[in-house]
Amino acid sequence: MSLVKIQSKALKQLSAPIHSITRANISYTLSNGGVAARLYKHVMFTDSHVYDVGLKVSIVRLCRNSMIIVTDRELDVLGSYELSLQGIHQMNGYITMQEMASDSADSYTYEFHQNDRLTDQELSLLIADLI
Predict the structure, then answer these.
(1) Rounded to two decimals, what is the model's pTM?
(2) Cβ(108)–Cβ(74) under 8 Å?
(3) What span, in angstroms and rounded, lies between the C-alpha atoms of 56 and 49?
(4) Residue 64 C-beta-side C-alpha neighbours within 13 Å
(5) Looking at the chain, which terminus has fewer C-beta neighbours within 10 angstroms, N or C?
(6) How confident is the model at residue 87 (pLDDT cuts 50, 70, 90)?
(7) 22-26, 84-88, 104-108 — which one is most confidently predicted on average?
(8) How far apart are CA 107 and CA 51, in angstroms?
């Protein structure tokens, strides 16, 4: 007769601690001026913006739920935006102004907060030049 008690997997899961270790939201800094993207502002009346190609921005730092973008124009932070990147679905979100030291006085830095987090595949596609 064996004195070893064998527990089922269901009992082990019930007795396991509730908290789990998750991967940290690591931030990546992109080199060579960042990744080029287009930023579109959502407006209610789009008659005058039918052929809008978007504002050219550079993504200089990114993580799963936000991106630091640099542009040469001052943007309205009270709006809804859409960010378009080649190879990745268009992301909806909003922007906030960032206080970062900039090399030139004519560039503005914002943080784009997307509504959906980036997947592992999308993140690896964007940081491919860092590896």
Answers:
(1) 0.71
(2) yes
(3) 16
(4) 8
(5) N
(6) confident
(7) 84-88
(8) 25
Write out the two tokens for 17. 């601690």
Task: Compute the distance between CA of residue 131 and CA of residue 127 in angstroms, rounded to an integer.
Answer: 7
Please report which confidence band the pLDDT of residue 42 belongs to, taking 50, 70 and 90 as the band edges. confident
Contact assessment for residue 107 and residue 72, using Cβ atoms and an 8 Å cutoff: yes
∠101-42-106 over CA atoms, to 5°? 25
CB 110 within 8 A of CB 92: no
| Other CB atoms within 10 A of residue 60 CB | 18
Nearest to 23 by CA among 120, 88, 89: 120
Taking the C-alpha atoms of residue 101 and residue 60, their distance in angstroms, rounded to an integer, is: 13
Residue in 72, 78, 81 with CA at minimum distance from that of residue 114: 81
DSSP state letter for 131:
-
